[in-house]
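Q: Please design a sequence for this.
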């Protein structure tokens, strides 16, 4: 069971422009890294010599971050304290493109903060600062009022329940009922063992431990998990249950659905936030009208990507498309496409040309290429070789090798040909092809566009298109 790279690219393209509402427990994830070289003489505990500290959004905030990175827009609602951690969380979320952040500040509780102490790849301790009691009636009313304003704009709603008190029974039932009135699917990442709280949800995503706690499950083979999940579905009118099984993959049970996809992960570095990535990817795929089984498979690929990275990580479209591929072979030289280009000309088709590094394809890239294709009948994408990228961006780049980048681009629905070039600029390639339209992003001035003079002399046009603000590979790598 798999989703092809081409279908993954179509889903990811359809995700762009969809809006998802996330409501739940906001957190700040703090990571303190260092080295352990000795044991304390005061007690048998390791001494961590700190080398760095960094923070990132956690909990429902990490779900929202994943959604935005996959190309959808998102509104995030939750509770923070009136403290320094809330300021740090807001600062981190200010850097997330396409996110509308609507926190409610409570004077009665701190911002939930998880501090992880790590030596190398090993987490040696975690410190939690939190209050987990239910929200006050006043704060719950504020949460419901803001949610009521935002529900109508959403294609999908996620309730991210970390049992920190934000999602009370009253809040959950109100949002599910409101979503049903607007025919919007609700996805819930649960922490309570009382699944009656989630009555009427479209999809609930427990891990195996949570399913066991909720049902008293003793056997954990596929049949037992299916029976337990279906028992919860029937008892609480839940449409579908997706059980994440760690190294065993995922299992989906619903009306006329019984599916399992095995784990894809080979090297696990850090599982922090993997569940957030799963629910975000599923929500995005559902918003893009993907079948639920395909949504599960995409989420499985997304999870396998983020657990291979340190910290509370996210994945981008280029990684997801590449992960769905069985191999990355692609025809990517000018000679490979000469005959096809000649045929396009004979047919009177307008040939467009654009270029870039496209390292870790993201929503900004996809927006630009989608807009570029509107200006021509056939779009040729020229991509810098690995050597060319390294000269332009430094020895740490590219992140993805040239064949993978070309493969990913070639599966986009608005790409007709991909050509890798080794020079610093695509001028030689432009002169060889003489496209009818040379297309670049609006961050370039007309006089800065390489090949513009040649294209105009040949009777062609030069077009600039508006960029999708906030999306870049550099910004992605800094998250």
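A: Design:
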């Amino acid at each position: 069971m798999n989703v092809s790279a081409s279908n993954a690219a179509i889903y990811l393209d359809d995700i762009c422009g969809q809006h998802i509402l996330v409501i739940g427990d906001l957190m700040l994830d703090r990571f303190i890294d260092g080295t352990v070289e000795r044991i304390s003489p005061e007690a048998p505990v390791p001494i961590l010599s700190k080398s760095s500290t960094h923070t990132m959004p956690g909990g429902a905030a990490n779900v929202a971050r994943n959604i935005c990175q996959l190309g959808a827009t998102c509104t995030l609602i939750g509770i923070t304290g009136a403290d320094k951690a809330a300021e740090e969380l807001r600062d981190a979320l200010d850097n997330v493109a396409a996110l509308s952040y609507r926190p409610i500040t409570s004077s009665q509780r701190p911002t939930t903060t998880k501090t992880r102490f790590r030596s190398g790849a090993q987490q040696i301790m975690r410190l939690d600062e939190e209050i987990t009691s239910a929200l006050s009636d006043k704060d719950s009313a504020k949460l419901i009022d803001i949610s009521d304003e935002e529900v109508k704009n959403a294609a999908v709603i996620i309730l991210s329940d970390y049992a920190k008190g934000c999602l009370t029974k009253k809040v959950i039932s109100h949002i599910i009922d409101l979503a049903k009135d607007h025919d919007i699917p609700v996805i819930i990442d649960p922490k309570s063992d009382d699944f009656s709280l989630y009555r009427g949800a479209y999809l609930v995503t427990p891990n195996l431990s949570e399913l066991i706690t909720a049902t008293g499950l003793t056997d954990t083979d596929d049949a037992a998990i299916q029976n337990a999940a279906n028992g919860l579905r029937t008892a609480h009118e839940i449409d579908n249950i997706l059980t994440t099984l760690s190294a065993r993959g995922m299992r989906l049970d619903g009306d006329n659905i019984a599916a399992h996809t095995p784990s894809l992960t080979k090297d696990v570095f850090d599982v922090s936030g993997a569940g957030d990535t799963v629910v975000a990817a599923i929500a995005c795929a559902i918003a893009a009208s993907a079948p639920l089984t395909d949504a599960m498979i995409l989420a499985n690929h997304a999870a396998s990507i983020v657990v291979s990275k340190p910290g509370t990580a996210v994945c981008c479209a280029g990684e997801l498309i590449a992960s769905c591929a069985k191999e990355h072979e692609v025809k990517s030289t000018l000679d490979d496409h000469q005959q096809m280009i000649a045929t396009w000309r004979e047919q009177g088709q307008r040939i467009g040309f654009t270029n870039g590094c496209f390292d870790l394809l993201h929503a900004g890239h996809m927006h630009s290429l989608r807009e570029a294709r509107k200006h021509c009948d056939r779009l040729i994408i020229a991509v810098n070789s690995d050597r060319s990228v390294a000269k332009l961006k430094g020895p740490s780049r590219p992140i993805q090798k040239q064949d993978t980048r070309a493969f990913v681009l070639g599966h986009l629905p608005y790409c007709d040909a991909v050509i890798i070039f080794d020079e610093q600029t695509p001028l030689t390639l432009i002169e060889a092809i003489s496209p009818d339209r040379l297309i670049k992003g609006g961050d370039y001035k007309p006089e800065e566009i390489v090949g513009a003079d040649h294209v105009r002399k040949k009777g062609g046009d030069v077009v600039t298109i508006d960029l999708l603000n906030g999306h870049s590979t550099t910004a992605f790598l800094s998250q």
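Q: Thanks. Anything notable?
A: The domain at 5-324 is CATH 3.40.1190.20 (UDP-N-acetylmuramoyl-L-alanine:D-glutamate ligase). The longest strand covers residues 26-39.
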